Each structure stands twice: as structure tokens, then as C-alpha cells.
Amino acid sequence: MPESARLMDSYTEMTEMLLPNDTNNLGRALGGAVLHWMDICAAIASMRFSGRQCVTASMDHVDFIAPIEMGEVAVVEAYVFDVGSSSIDVKVDVHAEDPREGTERKTTTSFFTFVALDDDGKPTQVPRLDCDSDAEQQLRDSALEERQNQR
């Protein structure tokens, strides 16, 4: 395991087109579908960062700020912003994009905590988080502040 890893090494972006199987009777994204996408994106970011299998330990409060409408694209972005000895904190943002109109809006944000596992399924040490650029440090500082304010 490397001693450190960069924030941008963890950056993950997923896209999903909202189709009928993931909508409610109003033609909007089911909250459970959005949470599922967020959890997967955060898990990938954690694994990219640590080079280990990672499992979800917790998810902070979630507000669904705006709906995602049928036919829109959900853009899910995640990155590691803090670590403990075996824990990895990930910020996840979701935006709705209408490719026909060229518009985008924020729909959901939350913070996840993952635990890295060794080959025996036990918690294991994770790399130190490095921010090699001002942009990375700004992302980290913003996430730390936003999470603190949310709590």
C-alpha cells in the first residue's frame, strides 16, 4: 500500500439516464435509486484511493434539493476528502442534466464513510490524503467545512 494518495486519484464520475424503472408515479427519480448510485460512486472513489476493497460504514443526512425528471441524466461525482486509520470520507454530489437544453442543476449532496478491508475482511490502514494542488486543497477544505456545517 502506498503511504499517500492524491485526492484526484479518487475522483469518480458516473452518469445514469433516468428511465421508467427508476422513477416514481410522478416521473421523477426514486430516492432509493439515487442513493444506490451515490453509494456505488462513493465506493469506487474509496477503492481507487485505497487500492483496497471498501465497505460503507455510514452515510450522513441527505436532502433531495431538486428532482431528476424522466429522460434527464443524473451525474454523480465523488471524491475522498478525509481519512482516518482505516476509514475514508467521501463527498458525493448529484446533478441533473438535460442534454437537450444544455442545463444542469444540483439535486443531492451527502457524505459517506467507508472502511478499507484487508484480504481477510478486517479493517486495514489507508494511505494518507495528499492535496498536490490548490484546487485539490480547496475541494478538501470546502467538503470539510460543508460537512461540519451540516452536523
From TrEMBL:
Taxonomy, superkingdom: Archaea
Protein's recorded name: Acyl-CoA thioesterase
Listed PANTHER family: ACYL COENZYME A THIOESTER HYDROLASE, CYTOSOLIC ACYL COENZYME A THIOESTER HYDROLASE
Tagged with keyword Cytoplasm: no
Region Disordered, annotated ranges: 120-151
UniProt xrefs under InterPro entries: Cytosol_ACT (IPR040170), HOTDOG_ACOT (IPR033120), HotDog_dom_sf (IPR029069), Thioestr_dom (IPR006683)
GO biological process, one term: acyl-CoA metabolic process
GO cellular component, one term: cytosol
Compositional bias (Basic and acidic residues): 137-151
SUPFAM superfamilies according to UniProt: Thioesterase/thiol ester dehydrase-isomerase
Signal peptide (UniProt feature, chain positions): none
Record keyword Ribosomal protein present: no
Location of the HotDog ACOT-type domain: 8-120
GO molecular function: long-chain fatty acyl-CoA hydrolase activity
Pfam families with a match to the protein in the record: 4HBT
Keywords (A to Z) from UniProt: Hydrolase
